[in-house]
Amino acid sequence: MNLNRFVRSAYGIVRNKYDLYWDEKKIINIISLSKNRKTVFIFGSPGHSNMGDQAQMYCIQKWINQNFEEYQCVFFTLRTSTDKVIRHLRKQINSDDLLMFHSGYHLTDLYREKDVYCKIAQLFPDFKIFIFPQTINFKDKDEEKDEKADEEIVNFFKEKIGDRVQKYSVESLKKEDTPDTTIEGSNNEIINSVFTEEEIKAFKNGVKVEVTIDINNIENKVTDSDKKLIDNKLKADEKIGTILDIVLNKNVDGNKNSVHELNSAIKLKVAIPENIINKDASIKREYSVIRIHNGESENISVDYNENDNTIIFETDRFSTYAIVYKDIIKNTEDNNQSVIPDNNTSVDSKDNSVATSDTMHAAGTVWLLFAISSGMICVLSRRRKKNI
Length: 388
Known about the structure:
Mean pLDDT: 81
Structural class: alpha/beta
Number of helices: 10
Radius of gyration: 42 Å
Strand content: 25-35%
Distance between the termini: 152 Å
Low-confidence stretches: 334-357
Helix content: 40-55%
Number of strands: 17
Order of helices and strands: HEHEHEEHEEHEEHHEHEEEEEEEEHH
């Protein structure tokens, strides 16, 4: 019995070492293949089938895909987060790569993720590390909650990576007489569009950056020259709905500047003002935008969403914008049909006339035959009487 137990135990150890060898080899190969691509390396990913943990991993990957579109993801489970693998990553990682810690019940003395996270924080002092929400729960020898241990681990991560956190925000400054306006797109797209290379580098090194949109209604303040430029771009039957002055500002570590031209176009989502929302079911209202920039006007096409009454358009310049619209009468079923003579009526009349004519001819023929027959009967009757 003891021999069988020993053999099974030895086999389990050998098999585990064998499997770990190939798991390490596989993840090391993946790291090497990621050398020429921007990569997010995520530690603490679940290697089990727990639905809650798997759901967190799904949400994290979706968030990465939305905000870091050009990045690929490499996931590390606790099993593959060995010293050998982490050292190899340290040699292969690129300056643009990102490190993230999976969310969950990891900062606790029940599991080994805490040791892995601490080691990575120490080995990668030159990299930003994203830590998704964590449950922190350490216990003392009497199985009571050890608040001191909790505080120590929090302070450790604050000290090691607290100054590496990226600080970025986008805000829209709306007034009562201006429509809701937001910038569409991922954080990465907006940052690359608005900031210079030097500012982006500073951001990656921990400098706080902000983007704000300041919108003002200038319907009653627009200059005569801008009004003329707008009128010149109005198409047939188009009307001016509202005129806005949209200013984009950037703030880099407290230094605020207005940005009039971007590196690349971004998408703006603007709510249609209440007074120009179409409420007539018999017409279709089409919207577009006219932009005035440096004394030149330009028509900009928009995508209109009738569900939330918003328009989305692309722009890389910020100054004066006019939202214009045109009404088109909807085609009803009657209008869709061409107005043509009612040939059926004329055909029916013709058929009726033909039928009436035929009836009259038939009646005349019957009367004629009746008259001839009567005459012949009378003649024959007289001859018969004479013979008698």
